[in-house]
Amino acid sequence: MRDGGGEDETRKWERITYAGIVACTALAFYNLSKGHPHFDPPP
């Protein structure tokens, strides 16, 4: 690897990390906002 070339790679992975955090948070809100069934208690 060339000297000083790691900055671009670091920036790339930092953006990917932040995008992943946003995507996972959005998916969690979506899944938790959907209705879910409630069953009668067992006898």
Structure description:
With 43 residues, this protein is mainly α. Helix content is 65%, strand content 0%. It is rod-shaped. The model has no long low-confidence stretch (mean pLDDT 89).
Q: Provide the succession of SSEs.
A: H
Rg, Å, rounded = 21 Å
Helix/strand-derived class?
mainly alpha
Distance between the termini: 67 Å
The average pLDDT is 89
Given the structure, what is the number of helices? 1
Determine the strand fraction and express it as a percent band. Answer: under 5%
Give the low-confidence spans.
Answer: none
Categorize the overall geometry: rod-shaped
Helicity, as a percent range:
55-70%
Biggest sheet overview: none
What descriptors fit this protein?
single chain; 43 residues; mainly alpha; 65% helix
Provide a concise account of the structure shown.
Keywords: Membrane, Mitochondrion, Mitochondrion inner membrane, Transit peptide, Transmembrane, Transmembrane helix. The chain has one helix at residues 6-33. The chain is mostly helical.
Secondary-structure map with pairings?
Blueprint: H1 6-33
